[in-house]
Amino acid sequence: MSEYANKRTRGAFIAAVFAMQGVGIIFAGLVSMIFSALFKAYFEAPIYSKDKILSTQPEGDLLWRLVLMVGAIPAAMTYYWRMKMPETGRYTAIVEGNAKQAAADMARVLDIEIIAEQDKLAEFKAANNYSLWSGEFFERHGRHLIGTMSCWFLLDIAFYSQNLTQKDIYPAMGLIDKDVAMNAIDEVFQTSRAMFVVALFGTFPGYWFTVFFIEKMGRHKIQLIGFFMMSLFMFIIGIKYEYLKEENKNLFALLYGLTFFFANFGPNSTTFVLPAELFPTRVRSTCHALSAAAGKAGAMVSAFGIQYYTLKGETKKIKTAMIILAFTNLLGFFCSFLVTETKGRSLEEISGEDGRESELTATPNDRVSGTRQDSRTEKM
């Protein structure tokens, strides 16, 4: 999407692609709720029993398998549509060096004839023919790569640890029956319902606030605000955990929802957008993949570090973990200064492929004057 979109709408388009994750989360909750409701009706299982746990193990086993298999349908559709999608003109021209094919592909998309200029393309390619592991790459883009990788890593430590308080927050919000034994099907239904409500009112709006405001506020500002607000809310939850859980459940729910909101109207979206814009076409996907891989490393730290530490659900450990996560977000806030704003600039200008100096080596005056586009990059 970053290579298809123009510079005025590129951020919103990339954020919209990522925001479909929020739509997927909503539908995932609906699928689980619908299947578990059907199972409850079919097997005539009561919602709960106060004196014993009801056994519906065979039906519960079938339930989660069916819900999992439903995920194969959108996966197959995605694969089919991606196979039908042409490669971007930027990749075909700059990486493969085939101006004629790039012009043909772009003509299919734009429905107009584009003149292929192989000589100019060869000159352009020769001027930017440095590898990912070269000194020139790290001189021009090394700081950006460290920034995108570290921010995504730190974000995912906190993002995948947000379920630490679920055992207390869902009953506090009245979304799960407290101190009541449930059978497997009831547990799936109530947990799916709780996650659906949180996603609908916390997670989902955050994604689309990013889509609507990213071209007005910029990626960098949204990321800074998101990290800071996540740090603030997690710190408050960690310090006042017993009070919130026992005496102010509404505030507990509000802080929990706002943490999800600012994760998505913040670094969870922008750490996806920025690596798609900061790097040259030749290594854009690779640098994006390295950044995403750093994020999954953060998810592993969350699963085997933070969540393992709080496995028994002790309040003291949850409080400590939330304070640690608050400082993790604060570190992400400061690492965000390793990346730069990309709003309103062409991909070639951002990466320095158009012959201008890159953001890392340009003087402040160059950066100001660089906002003016020549005729070759204006349309990109």
End-to-end separation: 12 Å
Please trace the helix and strand order, writing H or E for each element: HHHHHHHHHHHHHHHHHH
Shape: globular
CATH architecture: Up-down Bundle
CATH superfamily: MFS general substrate transporter like domains
Class per helix and strand makeup: mainly alpha
Radius of gyration, CA atoms, in whole angstroms: 24 Å
Compute the average pLDDT: 82
Low-confidence stretches: 358-380
Number of strands: 0
Number of helices: 18
User: Percent helix among the residues?
Assistant: over 70%
Provide the β-strand percentage band.
under 5%
Query: What's the CATH first level?
Result: Mainly Alpha
The largest β sheet comes out as: none
The domain count comes to 1
At the third CATH level, what is the topology name? Growth Hormone, Chain: A
Describe the structure.
GO terms for molecular function: transmembrane transporter activity. It is found in: Membrane. Residues 360-372 have a biased composition (Polar residues). It is a multi-pass membrane protein. By secondary structure, the chain is an all-alpha fold. Helix content is 71%, strand content 0%. It contains 18 helices and no strands. Helix 7 (135-159) runs antiparallel to helix 16. Mean pLDDT is 82; it is low at 358-380.
Task: Provide a concise account of the structure shown.
This protein is mostly helical and about 375 residues long.
